[in-house]
Structure formats: structure tokens, C-alpha cells
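seq:
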Amino acid sequence: MIHSDSLSIKPNEPILLEDTNITHIEDQQLPNPCPIQVVLHLSPKIRCRVDSTKLPIQLMQGDFLKKPFSITLQHHRQIKVRLGLYDPNSFFNGNPKDTFEGTLIPYRSPCTVVPPDAKIQSVRFGVLNFNEFYSKQDKFVTVDKTKIRLGSVTMQHDDWQIEATSVPNLGENLKILRRDGGYAITHTGTISRSNNEAFSVEKIENILRGMQAFLSFSRGAGCGLTPVEGIDESGNKMPIIWGTSHTEPWTGRRHSWLPQTDGGDSLSAAFSGFWSLYNDSAWNEAIRKTIDWYTVSRTSPVHVGIVLAQVALESLSHQINGRKIKPVAKALSEMLRKLSIDGKIPDYCESLKDFASQNNLNNAPQIIAEIRNDMVHSERKHISLPAEVQFNTLYLAQCYIEMVLLKKFEYCGRYLNRLKAVANEDPYEQIF
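struct:
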């Protein structure tokens, strides 16, 4: 069953993104518009499909079978697609037909489908697989005579305002995700301007990329936005995006730096600083790449995660130090010093302290660099590294990525330290 109402969609159910028509193929007008249904499938993996029972038979000829081609939709939107699955019985039954049943696949996903000259007044979006959180801005609704608390946050920077609220059926959805894994819409939100001015498609694409990066950093794993719908100055609704950016499936409790009880307040406190950095041309690409490396390091095998986490830290150190410093351990130490972050090996990491003592290493950056080098070089210095040393090195590197970014966001608030949680200590620290 396909639903267009985000609040009624259960985990791993397909999401109807749009019902529309194809008017042209490769700029050639069709004799009759071809009706299509754009569906985002969540299981067994995320994929966007354009389904139709009346695709023109010309698509079964020549280059259409081999190469991507353009289709023009209603309102003159043009995108590139390729031919996917099709039903041979729908056009081959002894009688020639003008149409057949089949599927088109967007050549790029996500892809923007709103007209480039559109002026957007506000945007509505869904969030896939974000963590549960609460805040001082929470909302209360009554569902079936039961009062439900919805975690809610409003994030602001300059005249931009972004609101995100958990769906009323979040508790039920999380139970299914914890049992089956996969994907679900956990929150919905809006993007608008406090001065009510309309904004361009290019501007909203930039905002959505930034929101995806910020939420992925806060979740500690790839977190997509879908469906995304714009409202124009006349109040007309229009799909903006088909598909979604990379989203990690739900795999149990995924700890991140974000506290749960007051996570909404933490998101609000970190957002403005993130957005200032994201809008800085010297930082925009670096911050997105760093968050990508960080999130992938958290879902990779431990040896791959250590390598990616150090790559992220090196990228940050180059930005913050303003120059390349060798060796890497010295660059990381200099970055931590500039941000007033303690580079000592934490007392609760006994395995790392023992490893450091045995190998004449004085601080955490040296341990991270030493173990990373051992992972990538053919001549291994440490033939058998204990699993606890490897995992604690990975967690320590990831914690440094989080602390460095939060410091750069000028975040002052609570931070969840997973290393302390592993050591059965109070995991919450305060960042100043």
C-alpha cells in the first residue's frame, strides 16, 4: 500500500512522491501525456522508481534501451532517466501496442524536479531515521483520547527558520525499526523565512544539503530528507526532490553526541554555528566531506573506521591550523591546542593507556596516528592489536571529530561521550 500522508506511513512502506505526466521525451512531444507515479521504495533498500502502465513503445527502440534520456514533466520540469524493469506481456501478445507497462529510474538520486525559476515560500519535509529527542519546545497532541508528547525543535540562523517535530506514531515506528531494521519517517519539518520572502530553488537545494549534513552529524549516521514539498507564493504545492540522500538503515540504538532528554535544545544551540560555518566558502566543502567521513567511519569495520576518522581529523586540522603540518600527530595536537581540547589519553581508557606506555606514546593524537599507520602499511609494527585497543581508538577519534566540530559551531551544552558509556561512567560532559 502506498501512502502520500507522511503521518500514516509505516516503516519500510513505499512513499508516493508524486502523480504526474510525461509530456516530452528527448524534447519530442508525445501524442498523449504519459501518466506516471513516482514512488520511493524503502525495502529492501532505498530506491526511487517512476512507474507507468502507459510508457510509449518508442522507449523499446534504439538508444533508449542503452543510454539515459530526458523526459519533460508537467510544468516544464525536465530530468534524466533510464529504462528499468518492464513487463514484456504488456506489449508482446501478438498484437502491436502503442504503450507498455514498465519503470523508469532517475539517473541521479536525489534529483531536483521543481522548475528552476520557481519562487518558494516555504518547504515541508520528512526525516528518515533520526534519533528520538525532546526539548523545551515540545508539542502535545491528543491521538485517540491519549495525550502524546512530540519532540520538537526550532533552529534559526539570520532570517531562516527550520522546525522539526517527531511524528505522532514515532513510538510505534521505533518498535518496528528495532525489531526489523530498515527505514521510517521519524520527524517532519518546515523551512521558512521570518520575513516571509520567497526563495529560489538554488537556495533551497543548498539548505537541504546543509540540513542533511547537520542531521547526519547529529545522528551519527547518514540521515535523508524525504518527501520534500514546496509551497509557492500562491499556495500551490510542488514536489521539490525525488529520492533521498544516503541514509543508514536502523540498526538498534545508535549513540551520538546528541543527548536524548534535551536533544532538541542541543540541536538548536549547535545549528546557528553550524550554518555560519556551512555558509563560509572556505569551510562548505570541508565540513560536508568531514561529516561524510565521520558517519561512514561509524558504520564501517573497525580498521576502515579508524582510517576514515583520521582522514576527517586531518582535514579539520588543515582547515584550523591554516597549513599542512607533518607528522599527522603533531597537526592533530596543534589543532586540539588551538581549540582548548585535552589531548591526553582519558583515564577511563585503560587499554589505550597501557598501549601508550608500552610504545612510548604520550598523547591521544599519537595513538590515533600510530594505529592508523599500522592499519594501512604492509609492514605491520603491531602484529596483533587487541580488539579493545582498536575499538577505543576508533571511538576516541570519533569523539575528537565531534568535539572539534562542536567547538567550531560555538556550541555550549551537554555532549554524550561514548567512551565513558563503554567504561560504565556517566557519559555526559559539558562543552564550553
